[in-house]
Amino acid sequence: MRDKTGSRSVGFDRRAFMAGVAGSALIPMPARAVAEGAQSPTAQDPTLPVDVTLRVNGQDKRLHIDARTTVLDALREHLGLTGSKKGCDHGQCGACTVLIGERRVVSCLTLALAAEGQEITTIEGLATGDRLHPMQQAFVDNDAFQCGYCTPGQIMSAIACVKEGHAGSDADIREYMSGNICRCAAYPNIVAAVKQAAPEIMKG
């Protein structure tokens, strides 16, 4: 049977058209994109530095850092705020605890990029001039700091513990402070400090 649409008189060769369609379908999509000069998005090399602005203790801090930098390393190594301590570096001891917004977080496991645009409060941001924050004063009054290495993280966590409403009993305080390890075993003193500071913190 003769293919009438393949007639040269109408300017359309059906067999040539079908061969062309089949041929183009066999070309892989990436190859087609290259052939057409398309620009595909490229992933950024994670080892290249990035610009980030962190708001720390009420001030904006512009940094040019490795995208994999944690909040803890940004604070200590780039901003010189060494109050937050690097203990286990695995989020288990709580020595690096800071407040991001109203939440307490272990800064060794939090990427600086993820904290951009949020308020970061460190131990350096608590006192007002020479006046200590009520929780800092309570730690002094109750000898709750012992060797002092875990103290910044303990104080930041204790403030959040109070604001979260978990300072109503000794058992609650112990439970909600259990993520912070004290190798000097000053736990009874820490519980006493949290109980002392709680009313003043709740007054605002």
From TrEMBL:
Record carries keyword Metal-binding: yes
Entry's Gene Ontology molecular function annotations: 2 iron, 2 sulfur cluster binding; metal ion binding; oxidoreductase activity, acting on the aldehyde or oxo group of donors
Organism: Bradyrhizobium sp. LLZ17
Gene3D superfamilies in the cross-refs: 3.10.20.30, [2Fe-2S]-binding domain (1.10.150.120)
Protein name per Swiss-Prot or TrEMBL: (2Fe-2S)-binding protein
Keywords: 2Fe-2S, Iron, Iron-sulfur, Metal-binding, Oxidoreductase
Domain 2Fe-2S ferredoxin-type residues, every copy: 50-126
SUPFAM superfamilies: 2Fe-2S ferredoxin-like (SSF54292), CO dehydrogenase ISP C-domain like (SSF47741)
InterPro entries reported for this sequence: 2Fe-2S-bd, 2Fe-2S-bd_dom_sf, 2Fe-2S_ferredoxin-like_sf, 2Fe-2S_ferredoxin-type, 2Fe2S_fd_BS, Aldehyde_Oxdr_Iron-Sulfur, Beta-grasp_dom_sf
